[in-house]
Amino acid sequence: MEHQTTPPLLIDLEQLRANLEQIWAVTQRTKSRILLDQTAFPAWPLYPMLGLYLSGTTAGTATLARQGLRYMDRDSHGVASGLSPEEFSALLPCCHNITFDSWDQWRQFGPEARAKGVSCALRVTDGRLCRPGIPLDALPEQLPNGINGLQLQLLDPSDPTHLAAALDQVEARLGGLLPGLFQFSVGGSFPLTDPAFDLAGLEEILRRFRARWGLLLYLEVGDAVGRSACAPLPHPPEFPFPFPEGYPPIYVKQGSGARPFSHF
Q1: Residue 256 and residue 246: Cα distance in Å, rounded?
Q2: How distant, in Å, are the alpha carbons of 46, 136, 174 from that of 141?
Q3: In a domain, 114, yes or no
Q4: What are the tens digits of pLDDT across the range 138-163?
Q5: Residue 133, pLDDT score
Q6: What angle do CA 147, 182, 201 make, to 5 degrees?
Q7: The pTM of the whole model exceeds 0.85
Q8: pLDDT at 235 over 70
Q9: How far is 119 from 115, CA to CA, in rounded Å?
Q10: Which of 21-25, 65-69, 250-254 has the lowest mean pLDDT?
Q11: Which domain holds residue 29?
């Protein structure tokens, strides 16, 4: 471990599995699809396990998108925020869906995405956020050809009433557009595994919205996956072989101790 610069991580697999089962139950009760925000839980050696419960991953770079495809092998959703043309061209082949934060991004990169057959969406906000996203009142009465989805960016996803209020605005402003869409994402960072979170309230909001519009619903999770299951390991145990180059030092709980996660 003398050359190891990444802080080791201790993961309680039983708690992790309990979190994933709770998240999976939300997908079943709401008929939605839940994606992993890889920036919040990038422990890719565990992705085969996560892929049993989650519908895919989100990524803002080609590196993260390839990581999700390789190790989870589920849906890959990209975000075109702040990318150069070269970076976008590298990200695109790794995505099934790409979300644009502005009209400028759509005009710049949309034709390339459509030519590659990648599904396209726009990120929208209720106007309280400066970035990212397009304010609801800046959307036209008819979306351009090639846009088949919207993603809602919330200021505070910890309270489902904020989502309900934002969806009311979406329906009031965009009700005429919604029937022509295929998918709708309510955004991310929902603390689904936090006991204090109003999970029943969120599920009712999602069921109601889906029943009215018949859209494929997505939401994203990150911290909810590892809640109470992950902790830094300041003094990792010695073991007789090194982690392969580029492999994150992940240990799993074993009794009162820890052992290296060996699925490589």
Answers
A1: 28
A2: 44, 11, 7
A3: yes
A4: 888 888 899 999 999 887 889 999 99
A5: 75
A6: 120
A7: yes
A8: no
A9: 10
A10: 250-254
A11: 14-226
Name the nearest CA neighbour of 113 among 73, 82, 80: 80
- What CATH number does residue 164 fall under? 3.20.20.10
40 is a domain residue: yes
> Which two structure tokens, joined as six digits, stand for 156?
């505070």
Number of domains making up the chain: 1
Confidence of residue 134 (pLDDT cuts 50, 70, 90): confident
pLDDT given for residue 259 in this prediction = 66
191: preceding bond cis by omega (within 30 degrees): no
